[in-house]
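Internal QA ticket QA-208
Title: Verify multi-chain structure generation after dependency bump
Assignee: T.L.

Test input:
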Amino acid sequence: MKQATDIQRLVQGVFHGEKRAIARTISIIENNEPEARKIISLIYPKTGKAHIIGITGPPGAGKSTIVEKLAKELRNREKTVGIIAVDPTSPFTGGAFLGDRVRMQDLSIDEGVYIRSMATRNHPGGLSRATKDAAYVLDAAGKDTIIVETVGAGQSEVEIIKVAHTIVVILAPGLGDDIQAIKAGQMEIGDIFVVNKGDRENADKAVSDIRAALELGTQDKEWKPMILKTSALTGEGIGEFVESIEKHRVYLRKGALDFQRRANAEIELIDALKQKITQTIIQDLREKGEWVRATEKILAREIDPYSAADSLLKQRPRQPSTR
Amino acid sequence: MSTKERKIRVLIAKPGLDSHDRGAKIVARALRDGGMEVIYTGLRQTPEQIVETALQEDVDVIGLSILSGAHSTLFPKIMQLLKKKGMTDVMVFAGGIIPKEDIPALKKIGIKEVFGPGTPTSTLVEYVKNSLSK
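Actual output:
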C-alpha cells in the first residue's frame, strides 16, 4: 500500500513540476525499476503538449553551446524548457562522462529550465532507451519546449526521429568533407540545418555545400529544410534560429504533426509489442527446453535460423479462440 | 523491459573560484572507468548551482574538488542547501588542497571523507562503491 501511495505522490509531483519528483521519476524509468511501467502508464495521458526539438550533428560543431543559446532565447520568450543531454556509455567499463552541462552553466539555476544528463547505456542510434520516456516526464511536468541533444556520433544517429518533432542538424565549417560524405542519415532527417561558427571564412561555402547536398536528395517534401548560419559565441543568428523552429512548429500544427504522431504511435506500439512478444515467447521456449534444442541444431548446421524460427512458432499451441 | 539497470551517478563539482580542474577531471574519468555515470559541471560553481545540479541529476554522490582554501566557507553552505532540499541521502566527499586540521570540522558537517592529493584513483573508486553498497 505504501508503494502505491508513493507512486501516486511521485506522479502528482511530476504534474506539479516538482523537481525532486521529476528527478526521481526519470531515474526509476532509466533504471527499469519495477514501478517504471506503472509510472509511465500514469503520466502518458498528460503528454503530447510540449514541442520537442532534437539537436544532432557531428562532435565539435557546438551542439551544447547552441542548446544553451536556444534555451536562453526561449526563456526570453517566456517558455519553460526541459533539456536532455545524451553522452555515450563506454562499452568496456559501462561508465560515462556526462559533460554537456559545462556549456550550460548559466541555466542551472534558472527555475524555468530543467536539465538532465543521460548516458546511452549502450543503446544504439545516438540516444538512450529511456530518453523518450524522460521526455514524457518533462512533457507531463509542463515544460513548453524540450530539447534533446544527441550523442553526436554521426550518420547512424537516427533514433532522434522517434522522439523529436523538429530535428536540427548542427554543422561547422571545415567539416566540408563530412557534408559531402553525409549523404544518408542526418541529411535526410534534418528539418533545419545550422552552420555554427558562422563567423568563420568558410561558413558561406558550408551553407552552399549543404544546399547542394539537400537538392540532390529532393523528394517531394512539403517542408523545405531551412539552412541558417549562427555563431553561438556571439549570439548571431540565434533569433532567426528560434524563428525557424517556430515556423516548423506552425507547419507541423497544420497537419503534418498528426501524420507524424500517428507514425510515431505505431512505431512505439511495434517496439513495445516486439519487446513483450520476444520476452514472453523466448521465456516460454527456454522453460520448455526448445530454445536450447533449436540453438544446438543451428550450431550443428542441421537447420538455418529462419527455418528454426518457423518451426518453433508452428509448434506453439494456438490460443483457443474466444466465442 | 525486464532487467533492472542501475548505475551509480556522481557529480564532480568545483565550487568557488579556483581554476585548476585537472584533478577533478582525473577523478571523473577514474569513476567513469569504474562503471559510474559522472556528471561534470566545470569550473566556478556556486553552492546553489552544485545543489541544483545534484537535485536535477538525482545523483548518489557528490565529489567536491577545491584547491583555493575556501572549503571552510563553501562546504557548510553546500551541506546546508542539501539539507534544505531534503537531499541528506546524497553522500558527499571532498578532495584537493584541504589541510588535515580542517578535516574534523568538515566531517562534522557531513562530508564523509576527504582525500588528499596523491590519493590513488582506485582508492576513490573503491570507496564510492563500498560506501553505497551499505
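Spot checks passed. The mean pLDDT of chain A is 88.
Status: verified.
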